[in-house]
Amino acid sequence: MARAVAAGSYSGVFVVFCWSLLLLSGHCTFFDTCSRDADKDGQTLKLNKVANGYGQRSLAYKMLGGCRDKGVVYIPGFMGSMSEEKATFLNNFCNLHDVSFLRYDPSWLGESKKTSSLKQIKKIFSVWMDDAFEMFKLTTGPQIVVGHSIGGWIAIHLALKHPDRVAGLLLLGPVYNLHENCLNFTEGKKLMNKAVLLLGKARVEDIMKDAQQYQISVAPSSLTINCKVSILHGKDDVFPFHFSQTLLNALTSKDKTLNILASGDHHLQDEHTLNEIGATLLHMI
Predict the structure, then answer these.
(1) What is the DSSP string of the chain?
(2) In this model, does residue 284 exceed pLDDT 90?
(3) Of 9, 19, 57, 231, which sits most exposed with the smallest number of CB within 10 A?
(4) What is the pLDDT of residues 185-222, one digit of tens each?
């Protein structure tokens, strides 16, 4: 059954319950795990060298081992990377709970190698989509895929392509159908202009044209995704919560929730929000 809940409902109670268990056992809270320096965890920065129809790329990533049946994969949002606070939090959360975790830098971003190929730049959204598919190949067994912003859109495509391996989706302020939801929206235009500054030759029109082929239907029950889906959306997000509500209604899953957080903007990385992410993820693994 689909459920839309506000912060302070089941997830808030669950956070308090988990805090109590962790404190009694001598462990730290979810947010305490975020405050640790992920770069000091002994993980080695690796490169996944990819060569396919989108050209040659070297994708930087870090992988954490675990012994649980399900692992976690993080797909960053627009212009995001594996060093951002949410990824750091997830890494340390998974380390604390003995869950395997994969995070990476999409092409052109973070530690991943830059490209001089004009073709790749003009097809950068397709390249980012393919990055996720290529990185997913490094995992084994069922995975909970966490996607932020357009990373949520990419996560949806990953679930559609690999329904046998994606055991759950945790979508954080998901943004999808860029042409429809961004160019007609002031804050969306700002994001596109930021991308132009950072990517140089990739114009807004090129990104929009490339992304159109990945449009998803958001008609009621039109997206055949039957795994557990949890969506978190900040009340102060510049993208209105109806983006997430519409997406929730489009999913065929019988186990899906939308949590509108009382705090949190589109970045979703304040202390309260990170605790909510931890509580939700613990419920999914």
Answers:
(1) -EEEEETTSHHHHHHHHHHHHHHHTTPPPHHHHHTS-GGGS-PPPEEEEEEETTEEEEEEEEEE---SS-EEEEE--TT--TTSHHHHHHHHHHHHTT--EEEEPPTTSTTSPP---HHHHHTHHHHHHHHHHHHHTT--S-EEEEEETHHHHHHHHHHHH-TTTEEEEEEES----HHHHTTTSHHHHHHHHHHHHHHTT--HHHHHHHHGGG----STT-B---SEEEEEEETT-SS-THHHHHHHHHB--SSEEEEEESS--TT--SHHHHHHHHHHHHHH-
(2) yes
(3) 9
(4) 676 677 667 767 766 655 667 777 889 999 999 999 99
